[in-house]
Amino acid sequence: MRFKDRCVVVMGGSRGIGRAIALGFAAEGAEVAICARGAEALEDARRDIAAHGHAAFAAPCDLADAGQIDRFIPEAAGALGGIDVLVNNASGFGMTDDEAGWAASFNIDIMAIVRASHAALPFLEADEGGSIVNIASISGLRASNRSAPYAAAKAAVINYTATQARMFARQRIRVNAISPGAIEFPGGVWDRRKHDSPKLYETTLASIPFGRFGTAEEVAEVALFLASPAARWVTGQNIAVDGGQLLGGYA
Q: Which InterPro entries does this chain map to (predicted)?
């Protein structure tokens, strides 16, 4: 129970990686708050979090909307009794090199992290031992010929993580990032591509030395480590969780 009585907020926590992270914290004793846009998936996730016997708060929030973030964070802090850990997980998945793709990546992948971190900072400072975990991507570590906005945004997240770590160190707030590789879960990007783009799916699978896609739970386990006392001297780092996909020449 590494997180007994700790208060954790997961932005974008209703499905996939965010849901796995929220459930992981709840399983280890944390009080957990989540937000997302889809009300049904949000309530399903909240119910599963509450099943662990700890406080579970969920509220709709469009992470492209600064006002909704500014509303959600204090609500979550009030419901939980504070914030010890903030996980910034949501993505706009801007894949197309056009105005729509860049707007989605900028507003959610970058600015939602900026806004949520700013809003949570007074609560994290009060704890004097808080932690922020930003979810980036291995796409941010290489040039991309398929998803320019997404890759550029994730590169910015990795850089901003290091900047946050330096800025917040005096408040004893640690900030780290995780860069997942190809992660497959029901309804996720790679689950859809298995049917919609089978050639891309198989090519990507072949690029992973371990011969399989990753799971949301494998990303969650690293998030829990980074937010735990076991990582108390780790800050400003980015950890690739990709089964060696970068080693296989992923681009």
A: NAD(P)-bd_dom_sf, Sc_DH/Rdtase_CS, SDR_fam
53-65 residue pLDDT tens:
999 999 999 999 9
> Contact at 8 Å (CB) between 190 and 183?
yes
**Model confidence, pTM:** 0.95
CA distances for 76 relative to 9, 18, 49, 68, 105, angstroms: 7, 16, 15, 12, 25
Q: What is the longest distance spanned by two Cα atoms in the chain?
A: 50
Q: What is the 3-state secondary structure (H, E, C) of 134-166?
A: EECCHHHHCCCCCCHHHHHHHHHHHHHHHHHHH
Helix (H, G, I), strand (E, B) or coil at 191: helix
Q: Which residues are part of the catalytic machinery?
A: 150
Q: Which residue has the tokens 């992973």?
A: 208
